Amino acid sequence: LICRLETVRELSPDQWIDLFGQWQAERDPSILALICERARLTKEKIFGNKVYIRGLIEFTNYCRNDCYYCGLRKSNRETDRYRLDESTILSCCEKGYELGFRTFVLQGGEDPFFTADRLRELIRQIRQRYPDCAITLAVGEHDRSAYQSWFDAGADRYLLRHETANENHYRRLHPEPLSGQNRRECLFHLKEIGYQTGCGIMVGSPGQTAECLADDMVFMKTLNPHMVGIGPFIPQHATPFAGESPGTLEDTLFLLALVRLMLPAVLLPATTALGTIHPEGRELGILGGANVVMPNLSPLNVRKKYLLYDNKICTGDEAAEALSSLKKKMSAIGCEIVMGRGDSPLVI
Ligand code: 5AD
C-alpha cells in the first residue's frame, strides 16, 4: 500500500481496487497518518498554510428528486419545506460580505420554483452588487442552456457531486429518472462552459465497494475538476437508508488524502458532514489535505430545516457568525484563513 502511495497519479483501475481492498482489510492507522501527512505537504507546496472560506446559503430545501440517502428527498413528508425570497438571499450576501466572505455558494434542492430565468435574475443581482465576489451554484442537474445562461449572468463555479461513478452503485442510491450518465454529462457541460467545476462523493454510502471507489478515482482523474466535495454518508432517519451505517472518519480522511495526492491543485473542502461525525473532523480534514471550509450563512430560522442527514451541525463554529472562533481553531493547527475569492489555481 505504501509503495502505491508514491504513484497515485498513475494507478490503473485494478491497482486502485487493490489499494482500496488493502485499506479496507487493514485500516492501518499508521498508513492513514502517513498518507495524510503526504497529502498535507502536497497541499502546502501549492497553497501554503492558507485555508479558503465560502459562505454557504441554503436557499431552498424543496427538491424534485427522491435520492434514497437525502433528507430533502421529495417523499420525505417530515421535512419542513422553505424557500428564501430574493431579498432574503441578498441580505445573506450582504451579511456575508460584511463578515469578509468573497465567495457565496447558493445551494439548494432541485426546486422547480427556481426556474432558469428566476435564478438567472438572482445571479445577475448578486453579480451587480458584489463585483468582487465569486458566485458558486450547487443546484443540481439542468440543461446545458440553463447552465450557460447562469454563467453568462455572472456565476463562476458549480458544485455537482457525481455521488458515485459506478453505474450499479448509482442505481442503488438514486431511483429513476436520475442516471449516473446524465450526472457525468452535466459535469462535462459545466466544465466546457467555463465554470470552475466540482464533483464529489459520500464516503461509506450503502453498497460502496473498493470497485466503486476505484471507479470514482478514475472518473475524477478524467474529469480533472477544480474542486472535489467529499464527506461521510450519514443516515437520515426519514429516508430509506435510515438504518444504514454511517461512513467513518478514517475512511473519509483516507479518500480526502488520496484525492489531494492525485489532483494536487484541487480545492478540497473539509465538509460539514466531516465536522458532524467527529468534533475535530474539519481540523483533521485540513491536516490531511483539505484547504477549504464553508461556513453557513443561511438565516438562523431555516438552518435546522436543511437536513440532508441527522445531527447536522449548524450553530457552532461552522456558522458564519463564528468566524473568529474558526480562525482560532485554524491557527491552532498552523493554518490561516484567507479572505478573498480563492479561485482555483488551474484558472489563474
Ligand atoms: N449524508 C451525507 N451527505 C449527504 N448528502 C446528501 N444526503 C447526505 C447524507 N445522508 C450530500 C450529497 C449531495 C450533497 C448536497 O450532500 O452528496 O450531493
From TrEMBL:
Residues 49-271 form the Radical SAM core domain. Keywords: 4Fe-4S, Iron, Iron-sulfur, Metal-binding, S-adenosyl-L-methionine. Coiled coil: none annotated. InterPro entries: Aldolase_TIM (IPR013785), BATS_dom (IPR010722), Elp3/MiaA/NifB-like_rSAM (IPR006638), FeFe-hyd_HydE_rSAM (IPR024021), HydE/PylB-like (IPR034422), rSAM (IPR007197), rSAM_sf (IPR058240). The keyword Iron-sulfur applies. Its cofactor is [4Fe-4S] cluster; [2Fe-2S] cluster. This is [FeFe] hydrogenase H-cluster radical SAM maturase HydE.
